């Protein structure tokens, strides 16, 4: 017997083939919670937490598009006033008073989205790193300003409500962490996220 093998002609991928290959292969949804730690020059952290929802589209075992929304509540003291940390400058009651510090309980809702790369995607334990952009919506909060009379030693407090409407953008979000696969349907993550304010004083919230 004699066989003649003719190589099959490679079919050129159509637009529909490209679209089908670029579609998400999986959808992920979860809840998150943890510590929120504001830090900036002159800022003294006291407490902070966050709770939120997290979703992702998986385009391949290594690449995901993520988005989340979270409620944050932080409390910090600061020895300086500034719009960049959400403490508008306030004048003392007289020239005999000097500014000591401000107590700032700052609540806000944060939205962020970006791309995430998974290492060791074939293993249960997978390190990951991401890069994204974020925005926050500051909720109403009260700043307590503390002044002290330099001559008499008397302290004077001023409670000022801060109202800020609309979204504040220009945040760079950098998540890094580990994911563990418990089963085909359940995963758990330990994640640390750095939020950088890269547009200056208009941000009105410390780095987080």
Relevant terms:
208 residues, 9-stranded antiparallel beta sheet
3D architecture notes:
With 208 residues, the protein is mainly β. Helices cover 3% and strands 58% of the residues. The chain is built from 1 helix and 9 strands. The protein has one helix at 15-21, and strands at 26-35, 43-58, 63-78, 97-118, 125-138, 141-149, 155-162, 168-181, 187-197. Strands 1, 2, 3, 4, 5, 6, 7, 8 and 9 form a 9-stranded antiparallel sheet that branches. A hairpin with a 5-residue loop joins strand 8 (168-181) and strand 9 (187-197). The radius of gyration is 25 Å and the shape is elongated.
Residue share in helices?
under 10%
Which runs of at least 5 residues are low in confidence (pLDDT < 50)? Answer: none
* Secondary-structure element series: HEEEEEEEEE
Largest sheet at a glance?
9 strands, antiparallel
The dominant shape is elongated
Record field, number of beta strands = 9
Structural category is mainly beta
Kindly report how far apart the N and C termini lie: 75 Å
Mean pLDDT: 86
**How many H/I helical runs?**
1
Radius of gyration: 25 Å
Strand content: over 45%
